[in-house]
Amino acid sequence: MDTWRSDDVGPPAEPYEPGQFYRRELPHLLKVLGGVQEPLETVVIDGYVWLGEERPGLGAHLYEALGRRMPVIGVAKTAFHSSQLAVPVLRGQSQRPLFVTAVGVEAREAAEHVRRMHGASRIPTLLNRVDRLCRDS
Question: 72-76 and 87-89: which strand pairing?
């Protein structure tokens, strides 16, 4: 992907609504992914793919928007009260799990990928860097 420029910013984000996070974030994710030149195998998001049975989260909406062409793995830092589909993953020395959900790949396999991601702390290095870039923009 080319270097990110301030004029690449999309429309203002919608206000946050519990359970409707995708409405705020999905347009921005699609804009960023639209600029990626290299072929992608999987998309990893900071958030949930599934909020519960038959209750899609940001990742499930992204999967649909991408034409179901690639798996989406969601990594959340906090438990969502109705998501029994999330697989807890402990990383580093942390006793607090990450919560992994997925579509297009089995959740347990996705959780193992997250467990093996680079970084010695609870949050994988890549997700820490993305989080920092988003907060700084």
Answer: unpaired
* Tokens standing for residue 38: 């290299």
The sheet that has 87-89: what strands, in order across it?
Answer: 43-46, 72-76, 98-103, 87-89
The b/e string for 61-97 (b: 16+ C-beta within 10 A; e otherwise) is bbbeebeeebbbbbbbeeebeebebbbebebeeeeeb
Give the pairing type, strands 55-56 and 50-52. Answer: antiparallel
pLDDT tens figures, 83-128: 688 999 999 999 999 999 999 999 999 999 999 999 999 999 999 9
Q: Write the CA distances from 77 to 20, 45, 51, 80, 90, integer angstroms.
A: 17, 11, 14, 9, 11
pLDDT interval class at 65 (50, 70, 90): very high
Cα 100 to chain centroid distance, Å, stands at 9
Q: Which helix (H) or strand (E) holds 103?
A: strand 98-103
